Amino acid sequence: xxxxxxxxxxxxxxxxxxxxxxxxxxxxxxxxxxxxxxxxxxxxxxxxxxxxxxxxxxxxxxxxxxxxxxxxxxxxxxxxxxxxxxxxxxxxxxxxxxxxxxxxxxxxxxxxxxxxxxxxxxxxxxxxxxxxxxxxxxxxxxxxxxxxxxxxxxxxxxxxxxxxxxxxxxxxxxxxxxxxxxxxxxxxxxxxxxxxxxxxxxxxxxxxxxxxxxxxxxxxxxxxxxxxxxxxxxxxxxxxxxxxxxxxxxxxxxxxxxxxxxxxxxxxxxxxxxxxxxxxxxxxxxxxxxxxxxxxxxxxxxxxxxxxxxxxxxxxxxxxxxxxxxxxxxxxxxxxxxxxxxxxxxxxxxxxxxxxxxxxxxxxxxxxxxxxxxxxxxxxxxxxxxxxxxxxxxxxxxxxxxxxxxxxxxxxxxxxxxxxxxxxxxxxxxxxxxxxxxxxxxxxxxxxxxxxxxxxxxxxxxxxxxxxxxxxxxxxxxxxxxxxxxxxxxxxxxxxxxxxxxxxxxxxx
Length: 509
Fold this sequence. Notes:
Elements: E1 8-9, E2 12-13, H1 28-46, H2 56-65, H3 70-80, H4 86-98, H5 102-127, H6 130-142, H7 144-149, H8 156-176, H9 179-195, H10 199-213, H11 218-234, H12 236-242, H13 245-248, H14 256-269, H15 286-302, H16 305-330, H17 345-357, H18 364-384, H19 394-401, E3 408-413, H20 417-423, E4 429-431, E5 435-446, E6 461-468, E7 471-485, H21 486-490, E8 499-504
Helix pairs in contact: 1-5, 1-6, 2-20, 3-12, 4-5, 5-6, 5-8, 5-17, 6-17, 6-18, 8-9, 8-10, 9-11, 10-11, 10-16, 15-17, 15-18, 16-17, 17-18
């Protein structure tokens, strides 16, 4: 393969690209490296699946979407979700086989995350050769952001996998110009769209690229692109039904630029430390940022012409997601969040792999690749031992609340309500308005915001104060159950922007 991306010539697409290649043989050393890296990826994802408790979105999957029949699941996706149905279609039988607990349900995402690693090798090999493939596989295996979402019972690991397969067959279609690779690209792209709506940005640029670069093969290209357009069009009625300002209203509470900054930090250090309205912890991403910057410099200074062209393609694919999301935000549809921008991670990681694997940077490049992956692997283990870097521990929180002696109201931030219902026994329910008679009020607040409320009836007095990592639990009881208004409970100070109330105990149902 003398050049990968003849569709780029002097910075422009070259429709005369007509390179044909044969897939290189994979020797035993490469297979051994890839097998070891994939095994490490699986270990990092599967071994600690049950360490963290579910958070809000995962509980929605386990408690609201998957129970019941297949038809019930599809209805729940339509009325309560903001994502396409493919993940839930796969998770429904998976949950019936392995259960809806943390390990059983999350193992599906762990499988998707593990499968992304060998796909990354194939992408790297298509871009520049086996060495790039191995480095890219290692980056995807140890990246904290990918590990985080490989341990979440949501669609993001599936999105990354499908987008990566789409990218792979996009590159292969440019090389072979064959109908088989175009058909597989169309299938993977449709799956990506059915995994998450944000896949549209990277799929659209791939489709446009293929239409221009392979326009002389239009009899093969047009049907493949048309199939993807049809697959996306079928989702439009579902998307229209799912539009709900309540699903995204909280996103715009922080500036757009700051959310892109959070995305950069998360791509380097995972979505840790700020999952309950805390700022990202940039220091954990400092070392990876330096190594990534060095890799880019190595690519720019020592990379070959072929590697530079490959990097330009990856850059175009990687930037398509944040740029597309930013343009959508400017016209009023602001969905910019780290997890929604995940399709950009694989092509951007491929640029880093190209820099670390370039032959002219040896032995420095491989040493830096080992250092980057070693740091990420150590950090992944560190996260499993550090509650402050994990999702909120609702499992322990429910244990601290204990069994209710009387009817009680548990006041927390809004997104804590559903996880608390999941982990509390006795059929806890949400309170949305009105008034209830309760004998106990439990207030869950940020540690620095936990103060004795003045708005509760005077008959309530505090009997317990428990510190729980980043949170504090304050328990108030009354001699006899008192009528408490919902707006009174919502006015209690938790340190969070929105408050949720859960009723637990006798007659909670």
